[in-house]
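Minutes, methods subgroup
Present: GH (chair), OT, SY

1. OT presented the first of two proteins processed in the latest run. Sequence and C-alpha cells recorded below as shown on screen.
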Amino acid sequence: MLYRFLKFTVGIGIRIYYREIRVLNQENLDHDGPLILIANHPNTLMDAWIMGHINRRRVHYMAKATFFNSPFKRKLFKAVGMIPINRKTDGVVSGINNRDSFEACYELLERGEVLVIFPEGTSYLERRLREIKTGTARIALEAESRNDGKLGIKVIPVGLNYLSADRFRGRIMAHVGKPIRVETFLAEYKTNQGIAAKKLTERFRAELSRVFVTMDDELKEKLVHQLTYLFDSRYSKEEEKGVEQSIGFLKQVQLQLDETTISSPWKLEHIQEQVDELVQSLNFYGIRPDFLDRPYRTSLYLRQTIQSWIFLLVTVPFFIFGFIHNALPYFGIDKLVTKLTKEVEYHAPLVVLMGLFLYPLSYIGWCILFNWLFDPNWLLMIIYALALPLTGLFAHFFLRYRRHIRSKQQFSRFAKRRSSVFNQLKTQREALKELIFNT
C-alpha cells in the first residue's frame, strides 16, 4: 500500500518536473518471471523513481547503506522495497550485513520479483558510463546456481538518457534493451565464479552502451553538445520529434565524431574551430540556431508575431493569477535546494520532494485565505483550488513563450536588416554540417 501511494505521488511530481518521459521498447519489461534491471546512474534518487515509474510491476532496489542510518529510515525504506548494501567507499553502517542483503536478493528473485541495481555504484550527472561492478553479475549467477538454473533470471539493461536533467521541464528517454539470459554463463560459474562474473559484467557494459549515449572524452562530449545545440532543430524536416529525436541525433553526432577520430583525427580541431566561430557569431547577433532552418518571410513573421502577442495579452490575467499563487514555493524551493546541496545530481530529486510538500501546503494556505475573504460556495472553492496548480504551470509556459516571441522578433529584425549576414550564417552552418556528416 505504501509503495503504491508513493509511486503515485512521486509519479505526479516527476511528470510535472519533466515535460517528456519517453520509454523505448517498453514491451521488454513485460516479463512475469524474475528480473534484474540494470541502469546507468546520473541523477541519484531520480533514477530510482524513473525505474519504478516505467515499470508496471513492483520493483525492489539495492541502495547504499548510508540511507538506512536510523531505525525509522530502515523501516520506511524496507517497506518500499529497498535493500541496503555496505559500499567500500562509504564504510560499514552498523546493523547492516551484506550477507543478509544478498540473501534478501536471492529470495526476492526466487519469488519471481523485480530487482533494480545501478551497477556503477555511484551517481554523477555526466554522459559517461563508469566502471561496472561485478556484484550484479554475482547476485544473478548465485541465485540461478542455487536453483540449478531453473529460475530463468533475465537481466535487462535500461539507458536513462536525460536532456537538462536538473532543470524544470527537462526531458528523459528511457531506452530498454534486450533481456540477457543468465543461465548461459552458469556452467562456467560452477567452475570459476570470478571469471564468469567478469564475463557477464562485460556483457552488461556492452548492452548498457547500446541504450545509453556514453562519452569517455570530456572535450569530445563538449563538442557533441555544441553540435547538438547547432543542429538539433525543432524546425527540421524530420518526422520524428521530441526527446527520442534529440537523443538519436546526439548519438548520431557522437558516432560520427568517433569515426572521424579514427579516419581523420586532424579534422576534429578544424571542426572545433568552426563550431566556436559559429556559436560566437550566433551569440553576438542574439540568434537561436534553429531559426536558421526557417525560411524568412516578412508577412508570415508579422502575422505570427501579432497572433502571439494577442494570445499573451488575452492570457495575462491567467498568468498573473498563476504567478502570484505559485511564486513563493517556486522560488523558495530553488533557493532552499542551492543551500542544501552543491551537488547537481541531487537538484532534481530534492526539487520534486520539496514540491510535493510545499506546493500543497501553499495551496491549502491560499484556499483558507480565499474562504475567509470571500466565503465562496463549494463549487467555486473547487474551481479555485484546481486553478492553483493549473495556472502555475501556465505561468511557467507563459514566460517561456514570451522569451520565444522576443527571440523571434529579434531574429525577424536581424534577417530583414542584415540579410547578407543571415545568409552567411546559414552557409557557414551548412558547410559545418557537410564537414561533419559527409567525411
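2. SY then presented the second protein from the same run.
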Amino acid sequence: MPHPVLVVLAWAVAGVLTLIGALVCAELSSAFPRTGGVYVFFKEIYSPTLGFIWGWAMFWTMHSGILAAIATVFARYAGYFVELDATGSRLVAVSAILALSAINYRGVKFGSGVQSAFTLVKVLAVMAIIGLGFALYRGAPPATADVLPPVTFPNFLLAVGAGLFAYGGWHMVTYTAEETVDPTRTIPRSLLIGIIVVTLCYIGLNVVYLMVLPVRSVMTSSRVAADTFETLIGPGAAGVISALVMFSSFGALNGIVMVGPRVYYQMAQDGLWFKFAGHLHPRFQTPDRAIIVQAIWSSVLVMTGSYRALFTRVIYTEWIFFALLALGVVIMRRRPGYAPAWRMALVPVAPILFIIVSLMIVVNQIRVDVQSAAMGLGIVATGFPAYYFWAQRRPR
C-alpha cells in the first residue's frame, strides 16, 4: 500500500480477522480441550480425513514453513552484527531451530518458561520502541519522487495477507490443551487478551515506522525497525533494535517449536502418522522424536527455499483451513450434544464474514503466484492417498 493510512488500515483489518479466528478457536478448544488442537477440531467437526490433511499440511508446508520463515528473519537481523552471505544466513537460521528444539526436548515446563520470559521482555521492548519513536519524532519524512504501486483492492488484500502472516500462530495455543491448567477458561482468555495486545503493538510500531521513513523505504527495507531508529538516533540505535528483533523472533520461534510436535504426536497415537513419532521421552515426557523430525524438516526448508516462497505457501494454504474452522462453529451450534464451556458472540454473522474475507485473500494470493500456489496445494493433496495408506494399516 503506497499510503501510510492504508498501511495502518491493512494492519487493523488483519487484526480484526485474526481476533475472529482466535475466538472461533477459543470456542472449539473449550468444547474439545485435547492435545492436538486444530487437528482434533477437524476430526470432530468433519472427519478424521480432514484432521489428517491439516496435520499433513502443517508438517510439510504450513507449520514448518512458518518456523523456517521466522528463523530466516532472525538470521537476517543477525546479519547486522556479522557479515553473512546467503549460506551463512541460512546456517544461522538452522542453528536457531536446532537450539530451540533441544530446549523443548527437555520438557514443556522448561520450554514454556523460556517462552514466558521472552514474551514479557519483547512486549516491554515493543512498548519502549513505540514510546521512544513518538518522543523522538522530528516531523514528516521528506517526500520522494518514487513511482509507488497503485491503490487497488487486490493490492490491499495482499497487504492484509502479509499482516495475517505476522499475526499468525494464535491457533497454536490450542495444541497443548491437555498440558494447560484449566484449558476451557485459560485458552479463550489468553487468545482474547493476546490478540488485542499484539494488534496494538503492530499498529503502534508501524505508525512509528511510517512517521520516520518514507513509504518507499518502509516497503523496500529488510530491517525496517533498525532503519527507523538509525534515522532517529544514529547508527548505534540500529544495533540495539536489531538485537531486540532477534530476541523477539527467537521467542516466537520457541513457541512454534514447542507446539507443533504435539499434533504429530497425537496423529501417531491415532495411527495416522509414523509410529515412532508417537513416542514420549521416558524422563522428560515430551514427544521427543516428533520434535527431532520437525527440526530436521524445517531446517531443510530453510536451506532450500527463499523467505518469500515459504511465506506465500503458508498464507493461502492455512487460511483455507481457517475458513473451514469458522464454518465448523456454525455447523456445531446446530449439532446435538455440542456443549462448549465458552461461546463466542455474533454467530453466525462473524464466522460467515470471516469465511468470505479469508477466501478472498486466498484467491487473490493464488492469482498473484499461481506456480507457488500449485506447488503448495499439490503438497496438501498428497495427504489424501497418505491418509488412506495409514488408515488401512492402523488397528481397528
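Chair's summary of item 2: Residues 7 and 56 are 34 Å apart (CA to CA).
Next meeting: continue with the remaining queue.
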